[in-house]
Amino acid sequence: MTTTLEVPEAVRAAQEAANAALARMPHPDPREPAGLAALRAAPPAGPRHPAARDVVRDGLRLRVLPPPGEAAGALVRVHGGGFLLGSPEHDDPVNARLARPCAVRVLAPAYRRAPEAPVSAAVDDVGTALRAAATGDPALPLLVAGVSAGAHLALRALLALRDGGDPLLTRVAGAHLDCGRYDLLGTPSARRADDRTLLLTGTWLTAFREVAFPGADRAALRAASPLHADLRGLPPLLLTVGDLDPLLDDTLLLADAVRAAGGEASVLCLPHAPHSVLGSGTPLADLALGHVERWLRARLRAAPLR
Predict the structure, then answer these.
(1) How far apart (Å, rounded) are the C-alpha atoms in residues 235 and 264?
(2) pTM for the model
């Protein structure tokens, strides 16, 4: 099922004002050392949460945000950044927002980034985060989430659990995947992106792929693309994406492929929204996050008792 979020006029106007500001943002080239350094130096958009703390599991730093009271589950949420950028701290505002109403302990992995490490290492790190989330109370269900490149990594980590016959997959009650890049060969909407595209330009789409998957030919890119994988056996998915996002078709085609494989995939399309709007702090982001919260709580309620 695909649903378009209903947006009041004031929310639409606020988002269009935010989009106008996005149209003026600089886009350093991550293929150049100075460009990559400048992008990595960008500070988090919001304040760091005072309750967050870092733990290390099997060499992986995890940023942990506890719920205010007793936990009803654990949520592993994977940050975005084109496989090259970002950190768990960048997602503190959204992670804190989800921890309270969903009553979940949020674990955000500081996964290894390209080009210093292959993307497969980041997939392994997400798996490590899932195993860390599963320790402790075995009765607590798990949730998974990811944004942009983090959605790609989260989905590949779930597929790796399935392919390895790992019983941990049965603990995962649902996955929220936001504006992910699921086809590295480029879906139609991604191929239409140019340098006027908000936030995630056509040049950035190409540059992030070239740095993260150096020298990869079409066969290798297809093999690394979740859209072209066997998608059977996944937990229920909520897929969110903006209608101005160049990765819109990645989401729509992934939903179709999951359903064709016998799985459950709901799509929430966000009008007037560019790439990665849920982390932007706009009224539209707040409205959409309310929908995500309700879906995550429903998945926790539906999780079997252990």
Answers:
(1) 7
(2) 0.96
